[in-house]
Amino acid sequence: MLSSALRSVRPAASAASRRFASVAHAQTAASEAEAATKVPDFRTFAIYRYNPETDKRPYMQKFELDVSTCGPMILDALIAIKDRQDPSLVFRRSCREGICGSCAMNVDGKNCLACLTPIKRGDRENEAMRLMP
């Protein structure tokens, strides 16, 4: 009796899992197609760097990043630069919601939170964003 009840439940569960897998596959294919059609939007980020063990003095290092491949905030760009270009880049972050203040930095001469400050868009393509974590 119990084995027949289990057999009747199993096909329904596998049908549900097949339905979920097909929806997940369709969403992945749609997001990949959307990413392929995005126009690249390169921005320059000039980041203040200093390692007391190897550097004599602080310096500005420039990074080019296609911001259409990351989130809209400066913190997203910093994470993308760290992941894709320079794993030695170090900065503080925690909540990503503007609550803790851990990602506070100076951006273009103004103090802000990197998780709440959007990346500059528009016609300022040749001007580098100056980040001083």
Intertermini distance: 67 Å
Name the structural class.
alpha+beta
Mean pLDDT across the residues is 80
CATH homologous superfamily of the largest domain, by name? Beta-grasp domain
Total of helices? 2
Biggest sheet, in brief?
A: 5 strands, mixed
Written as H for each helix and E for each strand, in order along the chain, the element string is HEEHEEE
Subcellular location: Mitochondrion inner membrane
Enzyme class: oxidoreductase
Domain 2Fe-2S ferredoxin-type: 48-133
EC number: 1.3.5.1
List the topology elements.
Elements: H1 2-37, E1 42-49, E2 59-66, H2 74-84, E3 104-107, E4 110-113, E5 129-132
Parallel strand pairs: 1-5
Antiparallel strand pairs: 1-2, 3-4, 3-5
Keywords: 2Fe-2S, Iron, Iron-sulfur, Metal-binding, Oxidoreductase, Ubiquinone
Organism: Toxoplasma gondii p89
Subcellular location: Mitochondrion inner membrane
